[in-house]
Prior knowledge:
The protein is mainly β.
Amino acid sequence: MAYVIINDKHLTAIADELRKLGGKPFYKPREMAPAIEELVGGGGYNGLLGLYFKGVDVPGAAFEVIVEDCVNDDGSLFIPENMWVGKTIVGDVTIPFGIVEIPDNLFKDTEGITDVEIPAGLTTIGAHAFDNAINGPDDIITLGPDVELIGEYSFANNTFKVFRMNDKLTSISNYAFSNSNFEELELNGDEISIGEYAFQNNTALKTIKMNNGTIGSIGKYAFQNNTALTDFDAVLTAVPQGVFSGCSSLKNITLSNDITHIKNEAFTGTALEEITIPDNVDTIGGEAFSNCRALTKVTFNDKLRVIGVSAFENCDYLSGAITIPEGVTTINERAFAGTTIEEVTIPGTVKVMGSNLFQSCGLLHSITLSEGLEKISDYAFASINTGRLMSNVYCPSTLKYIGNSAFADNPTLSVILNEGLLTIGNSAFANTPGAGTAKDGEIPSTVVSIGASAFENCVGIGVRPVVIPSGVTELKSRTYYGSQLTKITLNDGLKSIGSQCFGGTYLEELSCPASLESFSTSAFTGPSSGYPDYNYFCSLKNLEFNLSPDHQLVLDNTGSYYSLQMSDEATASDKNYITFKGQGGQIPKRKATYNAAIFGDSSVNNANTVISVPWSESENPTGFPWGATKATIIYNNGL
């Protein structure tokens, strides 16, 4: 069955059919109305719209169904909007010569059109004109030679085989072919504008042929999720957001040197194997190449300045050495996370390294950080090594800040700190055995803040003397937990030592400075297994508190189950002491809050400048009692 729109070209054929049927021929559409209406038994004349006939069979006629003929007052033809919305059409549609525009929604949701013929002279196809209308999986749709504009959703949600554009086409609007499936697209015009989402979700499109055509502009997500597309036979002069995202078979793309910005998600999830960043690109957007599972090589240019969030994240086969060009100022979070990069060099023009930057790069074994770098953000190098021997990482003198877990969970990594560092974040080196000291074995004297668990399980620290700089006022919970620390010097300025700070270490003695204001009674509490020699506590034998005149020291028992006790084995010796040391030959006056006596008989009063008390409660029944939250020792000079 064929569907046609009649005009003067068809009048002769219709007249002949009418004669055969005994009808009277008319040679102008409006004059023919009564006879045709009588013949088909329906339809009618509308003075504003010209002739409008419902889709009915004309027995014996050359054209089985007459769609319509609409004539303007000046004699030009037009088709009203929404004429066939939702109606059933099964067969081919021919748009007659003389129609210059297909209106919006003309065949929307008709679902059964198998082919479309678009004549010369027609310049515009309106929005939704053939939306969800064409079902011709073997058909080749050829755009009329004069069409310049394809409207929004005009061919959306359809199935056909090939769509051939003409050389006059200038604009393909937003969503024009979205959710349509066809295998081949031919573009022939110059400087064609392709709108946003124009070819989105075409799972059949394999090839885009440009012939002599060029692309002037292209909208975001224009070819998103074209999962069968392998090649794009055009030189892109702009790379908008998500333009080829999800094109999981796309292997080849050519980028013009005119491009300055590769925008977010542009090629995420494609099958690109190599990419050379064009000479003038200064910004690679967030997720631009993320999840490109086949990408093995990236060549950067010298003008690059910004690498976006997750730009190359989860590019599983991106390997070998990566040198970030001198001039790059920003590498955002997760930019290379989850890759298989083995070596990386960060230039001095990068001031801040983003969080999670190289996290889970399991083969990374060589890291070069240049002078000029000021901040390594959270998790930047966390979990980068699963056992492969790594070379030392030397932090530049310009580095001021190491973020939370920045180098955590790297079993063979050694990080050498440098003078100039100010802040070490929470868990910065946790579970990284060979991390966290300067070249001379000490934490840089410039450090003023050390986070909780900063050196937790850094077992390599055990062979190094550790000196806490005077600018550090707090050692937080679990700072050296499980680190096998053997010796540490606490400089004046330290005010607080948190819970489990030294749990599981091998410390035998600790002298606390007179500046200390708060000390957790669980500071030495360690794990219940893995330390058979010391069980719940470290190996500490002597703990010394230095008290200055009018000084107040709080022993904080908050949340501590074990208080200040040693394991049975450690307390078997009578050499284990807590010592409170005063100044000027005076005896500290000991005062208990919450009705708690402090490590012995409060009536003791002798001329010694040092009071020594056995460690365990069994030898000191008036020691720190169960249930007490805090006890305060006040040393008043001269009393």
